[in-house]
UniProtKB/TrEMBL annotation:
<protein>
    <recommendedName>
        <fullName>Lysylphosphatidylglycerol synthase-like protein</fullName>
    </recommendedName>
</protein>
<keyword id="KW-1003">Cell membrane</keyword>
<feature type="transmembrane region" description="Helical">
    <location>
        <begin position="133"/>
        <end position="155"/>
    </location>
</feature>
<feature type="transmembrane region" description="Helical">
    <location>
        <begin position="167"/>
        <end position="186"/>
    </location>
</feature>
<feature type="transmembrane region" description="Helical">
    <location>
        <begin position="254"/>
        <end position="280"/>
    </location>
</feature>
<dbReference type="GO" id="GO:0005886">
    <property type="term" value="C:plasma membrane"/>
</dbReference>
<keyword id="KW-1133">Transmembrane helix</keyword>
<feature type="transmembrane region" description="Helical">
    <location>
        <begin position="59"/>
        <end position="77"/>
    </location>
</feature>
<feature type="transmembrane region" description="Helical">
    <location>
        <begin position="212"/>
        <end position="234"/>
    </location>
</feature>
<keyword id="KW-0812">Transmembrane</keyword>
<feature type="transmembrane region" description="Helical">
    <location>
        <begin position="12"/>
        <end position="30"/>
    </location>
</feature>
<feature type="transmembrane region" description="Helical">
    <location>
        <begin position="287"/>
        <end position="313"/>
    </location>
</feature>
<dbReference type="Pfam" id="PF03706">
    <property type="entry name" value="LPG_synthase_TM"/>
</dbReference>
<dbReference type="InterPro" id="IPR022791">
    <property type="entry name" value="L-PG_synthase/AglD"/>
</dbReference>
<keyword id="KW-0472">Membrane</keyword>
Length: 321
């Protein structure tokens, strides 16, 4: 007969885990801001102050866009999870922001899956993780679709020299993944991270279509909000390019960045490098792009994760767990 830890001991260790998550997230945010080799924090503050980016009116409008961005994400999660367990908007906000904090320093936000699942009873957790996978796939599909359109326009307009050898290798990798996935689907016992492909197929095919379509629309609206926010920040730095030109670069940047695996806290570095190269073709100053990427990261990830820390610290572990 195995030894089980007393409930109070489990609670003590769980408090330590919660504190570790919050401290870890705070430390990574500090590291990104204070020790960014590409953009020193004092230089960032001086540059934004000089351009009047952080005036009261600008801050209010930028924060409004960030709140609206996360409002759409929370609404999407509430909509998608409702067939499994109906939750209030407040609960959806707690789960969305709390999981953001918990996943901030995990590769490709993989920690989000476990963080959201732990809010639910054990027999529901696999379905919750699959629902989160569906949510991320919908957002990714919008990013890819918009990225392909934007990059095609960008490449044709500015006659970008493409490395066809690298593109060819990338397509071969994608084709290999598709073939392996197809092979897995034909073999019911093939498993992906503990989930059989057959079970994933059944879950997605049985998922309410109305909920699926609503989530897709919310994903698309969210994409429009944060891409417009990026353009708005560029305009605050007095970058003289049209909305269409900017969107062709912004959509290309998010598309390319989404294909590269990374620890989420370094996502800003990857997007920064890609954006500097793409906007450099249009002659936009490197410091403006790095500052814009940093502001976007602060508004849409760092600040929400701070609010998410409150939910992480107040999360209660049930005695069943």
């Amino acid at each position: 007969m195995g030894y089980r830890l007393p409930y109070k001991t489990k609670q003590f260790f769980f408090v330590l885990i919660k504190l570790s998550i919050v401290v870890g997230a705070s430390y990574f945010i500090y590291q990104k801001l204070a020790k960014n080799p590409d953009l020193e924090f004092h230089r960032f503050i001086q540059f934004t102050s000089k351009n009047g980016v952080f005036s009261s009116k600008n801050i209010i409008f930028l924060l409004f866009l960030s709140i609206f961005n996360w409002f759409l994400e929370i609404l999407k999660w509430q909509n998608l999870i409702s067939p499994i367990n109906k939750i209030s908007f407040k609960n959806a906000m707690e789960q969305s922001l709390g999981s953001l904090t918990a996943s901030l320093f995990t590769p490709n936000r993989i920690g989000e899956y476990g963080a959201k699942a732990i809010y639910y009873l054990p027999h529901l957790r696999k379905k919750v993780m699959l629902t989160n996978l569906l949510s991320n796939m919908l957002q990714m599909s919008v990013t890819v679709a918009m990225g392909i359109i934007g990059f095609s326009f960008f490449a044709n307009t500015y006659h970008v020299e493409l490395d066809y050898y690298s593109i060819g290798r990338f397509l071969i990798i994608i084709l290999s993944v598709v073939l392996l996935t197809a092979f897995g689907i034909t073999h019911k016992r093939f498993k992906l991270k503990g989930f059989s492909i057959e079970r994933i197929k059944i879950f997605f095919s049985d998922f309410p279509k109305q909920k699926f379509y609503i989530a897709f629309v919310l994903s698309f609206m969210r994409y429009l909000v944060f891409s417009f926010q990026f353009y708005l920040i560029l305009s605050l730095f007095k970058v003289d390019i049209s909305y269409l030109e900017a969107m062709s670069v912004i959509t290309s940047m998010y598309f390319i960045a989404s294909l590269l695996p990374s620890i989420f806290i370094f996502d800003v570095v990857i997007k920064g490098s890609i954006a500097v190269y793409l906007f450099g073709i249009l002659g936009v100053n490197e410091l403006i792009i790095l500052s814009t990427i940093t502001i976007m990261w602060l508004l849409n990830f760092a600040i929400p994760s701070i609010f998410g820390s409150y939910y992480v610290l107040n999360f209660k572990l049930t005695q069943n767990d």
